[in-house]
Amino acid sequence: MRAPSRRPAARLRALLSGPEPIRLVGAHNALGARLAERAGFDGIWASGLEVSASHGVPDADILTMSELLATAQSMARAVEVPVVADCDTGYGNAINVMNTVRRYEAAGIAGVCIEDKVFPKMNSFVSGRQQLAQLGEFCGKVEAAKAAQEDPDFVVIARVEALIANRGMEEAVRRARAYADAGADAILIHDKDRSPASIFEFIDRWDFRKPLVVVPTTYYSVTVDELAAAGVKMVIYANQGLRASIAAVSRTFEEILSAGTSAPVEERIAPLDLVFDLQGVPELKRNEELYLRSDAPVEEGAPHRATPDPAPADAAALVASHAN
Ligand code: SPV
Ligand code: MG
């Protein structure tokens, strides 16, 4: 088997041309990205909703592009699997989109997704204002994104919000075709129904000129196998990690306060050795052994290191040393 390419965009392209459905999961920091990779997801969705929530602000173009980029970049540095960045509306007009693509590509992001709403956008599940961009204007953004990328493997996903904005199936299909023809590498068709019926109707009407991406947040009962059988190429579980952590952390905090001790929660929270492992302490220990030199005089003929090559750090010992 060929070793996976180091280039994230090439890895995403390989997944897109492979036979299996691609499963991405949302994250908002490097730790979440590592958990997703360890769980076995094919890639990371740098979710605007998750990153905004992690900063305590609405998903409504409140954070700046630089803030979102820094977060996506820290995720991309932490994992081997590709990171697809949710770039909302692209942070401005077609010219801003070009800058966005250049900056995200240079940061090691495999691909971006831009959606056809006006800036400032509102999260698709927040009721009220969901204003679509003009079709021609958004096609210009897609063309600009494709013109700006340097790596031909970099992926630009165009997201259709017509069903979110209650503009109907006809408009959704019309827009998806136009964005595909403008050069988008894939089309994300988004919906807020509890049933996947509209998504399946869209799929029935799609000619598969470009691969399809879906986000089954509200119509969560559908399985990846059902979606893949219908022809969907990429499935994004956009915010389940965030919601899991909100539920778990809230419960843990409440229990500690009500018990007056953390004893009741210790059994089910992650041990410190897992935290150390996830943040790369074993690697740090190996590097300390290799590269931290003492200034003390070295005996003639003795190695410059005090100890031989280290074994991978023992997690239990690490916990013990930190506990003392
Ligand atoms: C996100 O995760 O930020 C998304 C998906 O864009 S959604 O929240 O469904 O709009
Ligand atoms: Mg988003």
Automatic annotation (TrEMBL):
SUPFAM superfamilies: Phosphoenolpyruvate/pyruvate domain. GO terms for molecular function: catalytic activity. Residues 312-324 have a biased composition (Low complexity). It holds the Pfam family PEP_mutase. Residues 295-324 are annotated as: Disordered. Belongs to the isocitrate lyase/PEP mutase superfamily. PEP mutase family. PANTHER family: PHOSPHOENOLPYRUVATE CARBOXYLASE (PTHR42905), PHOSPHOENOLPYRUVATE PHOSPHOMUTASE (PTHR42905:SF7). This is Phosphoenolpyruvate phosphomutase.
